[in-house]
Design a protein that fits this description.
Blueprint lengths: L2 H6 L13 H16 L4 H14 L4 H11 L10
């Protein structure tokens, strides 16, 4: 699965909350692996998340909140 699809699928369908559900967490974790394989750094990774949220028409407050969540390492672990 390409990185953009993994990023999109790491958000809730209705609420567009990053890694809020079990399947979202799995995809978020995979997205980190793919980003590293593709030699994509954090800045570009965050840009891709921002672009996804903007494409969904999210307001700036929601985007900023979700980008903070993307940077929280604990959200990539399903079993804590």
């Amino acid at each position: 699965m390409e990185l953009e699809k993994l990023i999109a699928s790491s958000y809730g369908v209705e609420d567009l909350i990053f890694a809020g559900h079990s399947l979202d967490i799995e995809r978020a974790s995979k997205s980190i692996v793919v980003a590293n394989e593709e030699e994509i750094g954090m800045e570009e990774f965050l840009k891709k998340h921002r672009e996804f949220l903007e494409s969904k028409g999210c307001c700036l407050d929601h985007i900023e909140g979700q980008l903070k969540r993307v940077q929280r390492i604990d959200l990539y672990f399903k079993f804590d």
